[in-house]
């Protein structure tokens, strides 16, 4: 059933990932796909064969000439995000930019400023924020179901696919960094440390990275291990709290979220020793608890993201969980991590 006022939308970049947006916007009742664009002729020809009823364009200028066009999804290599994004925003069109927002803090600032100057919405495609399991984790963190958050960590590994344009830091770790910011909303990152290695011959891009982040006025630590050179596929995000831990395993089909209500009770005084304030005066009392697997109402993250984008366009006051300012924060962390990587893991203050 079609919506009463669908957004007239187009997709720029219809290759490996962009074709998913073409499918989504052509099927979603909230959107009316009025065009697709790609500057690479073979890619555009494949898209035309797959979506024969969609008007195809080989330049952004020609696409912007479509009179009914309101919004554009940009799915081009990250180094082109700023140029293409500025052109479309300054044409007065709403933009959904595939992550990352841009490759530098300066470019992010310009994109955010252009969106505000032209009174259009800018959403960054950090798709995992729209995952039902991540939403469940967020709700449990916010309600302190597992107590106060002590630390969070993530592992995102697989054997490929290898990117030629960005490192594993920008391609993989960015997912978990965005999730950490979402889960720990209201707490700003203070410093970043990153180590890694380039394993493939002929490339200086990091194939494996270990990123650690510290937060302002908070003891919480966050850590990410990301690699496309690991034969074992793992996609795990963990929140460890004072009362237990929440685990999201993206590869688990039936029960992706598990809650372990087990942890240390409050520190117990060891016998009748005098409290000197030293850790040896205390001991832990282990608390055993249940394992809970909450029901997850699964939705397609891309679809949920598009719904939020459309709602933000039609309701200008509506919040977006990954707006331009959020995307800017993610890129500032990635830039700091890149700088740390070049310095052998030194802490870089944001």
Automatic annotation (TrEMBL):
Entry-linked Gene3D superfamilies: Dihydrodipicolinate Reductase, domain 2, NAD(P)-binding Rossmann-like Domain
Domain Gfo/Idh/MocA-like oxidoreductase N-terminal: 7-126
Domain annotation GFO/IDH/MocA-like oxidoreductase: ranges: 135-246
GO molecular function, one term: nucleotide binding
Family statement drawn from the similarity comment of this UniProt entry: Belongs to the Gfo/Idh/MocA family.
Protein name: Oxidoreductase domain-containing protein
Organism of provenance: Thecamonas trahens ATCC 50062
Upper classification of the organism: Eukaryota, Apusozoa, Apusomonadida, Apusomonadidae, Thecamonas
